[in-house]
What does this fold into?
Amino acid sequence: MTIKKHWIEDTKQEDFFSSIDISSTHIPFDPNIGYSPREIVRDFYDLFFRRRIYQFIYKNYFKNLPYKYDYALPAKGFSNKARINWLNRHKKIKGSRVLIIGVGNGYGIPMWLRYQPKEIVGNDVLNYEKAFEVVRKESKSIIDIPIKLFQKDIEDLNTHKIGTFDIIASEAVFEHVRNMEHVAEKCYRLLNTNGVMYASYGGPLWYTWGGDHFSGRENKNNGFNHLLLEQKEYWEYVKANVKPTFEAELKAGAGGILVKLDLFSKLNSPQYLEIFQKVGFTVKKLVLEFCPIAVEVLKNKEIRDRLIAGHPDFTEDDFKCRTHIILLEKAGSN
It folds into this structure.
């Protein structure tokens, strides 16, 4: 029996982009995020032991993807702080103008501030103004640099108003933009020559398990429902499993909100790389994450056969690849 969830049916899409502030007030701002003793030990173990072991074990994990990559890891590959440090080894953050696309509530900014950038600018398509106020105020205890945060779509960012940047960073955003080529072109124009864009997108990618950030939440075998169900049947599935209130859904990861907004690129792994290269980017580093749950579910022959039948140009690797962690460069002219 379908359970009616009033908020997801009655709330209009435009409300999410205007009147609704989705700042997660239940999450405290932590100026030391990423630097607790536990997190420091975790990242040390990951860098010198776990990741090196996985690089050996999964060196050639994806055999059917049509591009080169440095190595593959099971999700979650490595922490956000470790990724920022990885970027810093290839492009120094100190003294750089940094643009964070899809900054969310901005609570991850303290990790960037410890590298002493010149300035941080952050945007998000959704309304986080309450959280932005907290970040602007509390971040001054770490380092007092300009921090500009605002609600705006990526495609509406204008170089004449915000300038260009040495570094662009994006966490869990590109899987949600509807026109990836336009966004990639915009990022290319916003980046200085010899600048670097770091992006981690996929958490998960559309064509893997839970690619809608929702399917499978009640039963792992339903994790490909967004690919296998017809539209009406899929919407009934969402209504039956979404949390009863907007606030509860937000705390549960907001998958139902993303489904309501249809905020998905709906691209497979190779298509992202094709777009980046088309607009002029050079891939410097690429790490892939695979989804262990997808690997397990794909052992079910019925599910696997239905996926392949519905996507005859794909291989199992397309359904297993969960995330790209990538460094892209806007190279200067020779």
